[in-house]
Amino acid sequence: MRRFFEKSTFIVALVFVFTAVISCEKDFTDIKSSIISNTKFDTDTLTVKGIVIENSPITSVTSDNISAEPGLYLLGVHTGTNGDYEKIEASIVSQLALSSGLKVIDDENIYGSDTIVVTTIDTAFVKLPYQVTFNDDGTAYELDSIIGDQTKAFNLNVYETSTYLSILNPTEPSKLNGYQSNDVFDKKVTKLNFTSDFKFLPSLTDSIVVKRWLSDETVATQDTVKYFNSTSATIPVPFAVIPLKEDKIKELFLDKYESSDFDSQAAFNDYFRGLILEATGDEGALVSFNFNATVKPSLEVYYTNTVVAGGVIIDTIYKNDSFLLSGVRASTYKMDDKVYPSDKIVLQGAAGSEAKINLFGADTDGNGVADKIEELRARNLLINDASLTFYINQSIDTTAVPYQLFLYKSDENVPPVYSQVKDVYSEGATIFGGLLQRDSNGKKEKYTFRITDYISDLLSGETNYSPTLRLKVINATDLLTVTDTIFKNYNWNPKAVTLFNHEAINGNKKVELKISYSEKKD
C-alpha cells in the first residue's frame, strides 16, 4: 500500500499519481507493487538507524484450548545443546470425554438367577498416537515433530487432578476462563501409572497385545490392537502406551459406571476432573502430539465378563471402553530461568524468551512521536516496500531453529495489550513473512518481515501509535486464520534460535529495517 505523508495534500497527490500513470505510461516500470523508475519521481532505499533490540524473557503463555484450539500439545523434556537455551519439562492436563450408556454388563448379556458374571480388567493404558510421515517409498511411517535426544528416556507419571477444569471464569462466570503455562494443577497422591517414573522413549510401536483373562485367572484369548488413519489404510499408526494400574482404574471407572457420577458429562467432570501427564527429568526429547488427528489420545480400558453357572464357564464377553482426552485441556511448561548476554538475542518457544524492538528510537521532544519518524515524515516519501530482517548467529546451535518467527505489537503495560502488525491482516501472513531463509550454502541465515503498510501508516501520519514490537517463535499453523487486530499470545513451539542484535560490531548481520521509497523530483 502506498501513501503520501501529508494528509492535507493526500487527494491532490493521489490525482497527480494517477494522471502521471495515464499520461506518462511509458515512464513507469512496475515489478510486483513497487515503483521502480519514472520521470517525476526518484526511487531509492534507506536503512533506518537507531534500531534497538533486546532480550525479553517471559514467564508464561496462554496454554489452554478454551478460546482457541491449538490441537498440538507438548510432552517431554528438552535440555538443548551446550546449555545454550532453557531446559523445558512439558506436561499436559486434560479432561476425559464420557461415552453415553456405559455399562459393565450389557442388558442383552444378563442371564438367569443361577448365573453370576465376574468382571476381570484385562489392561488399562493411556494411548498417545504420534505425528508421523511416510518414508520415501511410502511403505512405512516415520516419527515426526520430535526434538531432542530420542535415545534417552524422560520420566512420565500419570495423575488424577483434583483441580476442577472450568470453561467459565470462576470469579466472573460471564467470561471465559483461561489457563497459563505456569499454572499449578493439584494432583491426587496416588499415581495411576503401573510403573512409577515410567521411562518414556519415542518408538515406532504400532500395536499392543491384550490378554483376555477369565475369572479362573487363565487367558482365554489375545487381541492385537492397532489403529489406522482411515478405513482403507493398511499401515497402522505408531502410538505410545503408558500402562495404568488396573485395580485403580477398575475402582475409578468400571465400579462406578452405573452411579450418578456417570450420568452426564458435567457430573463426570466433577467426579473425575482430568488426567495430568507429567514429564520430568534431565534428558530426553519433546514430543508434539496432535489431539485433533484421526486417531486421538485416549484412556483405554479392556475387560472381560466371564459368565459362570454351576461353577462352569458358559460364556465370555470381551469389552473395551475409550475415554478421549477431550474437553478442557492445557499445557504446562516448567522452564529454567536463564539470563542471556545483551549481545545475543535469544528466542525460545513455549514459555522461554522473546525479543522487544524499538524501531525508531527516542521521542526527545515528548510529543508522542519518535524523532526519526518526524524526520522521515518531513520528506513526503511514497513508500514502496519496507522490510525488517533478523540474522541468525550461526556459531550457536542451529539444529532445532524454528521454521517461522512472528512479529507483533505490545504496549508493555501491566497487563499488556497485544495487537497485530497491520500487514498480517491487510496483506496476509504469507506476504508478512518471517519464514526461515537459507544462504547460498544452505545454512540457516535469516528471517525477514515485510511491514510496508505498517511503516506507510506511521510515516504518513495516519497513525502515531508506534509501540514496542515483540519477536517470538510461532507455529506456522497458528497464522492461517488471522481475522482481527488482536493478537493472542499462544505458543506450542519449543524451538529456539539466537540472533544478532543491533550493534555495529555485527556488520551486515545486525538487525536491519530497509525502506524502498519514491520521492518527488525537484
UniProtKB/TrEMBL annotation:
Domain of life: Bacteria
Name by which UniProt lists this protein: DUF4270 domain-containing protein
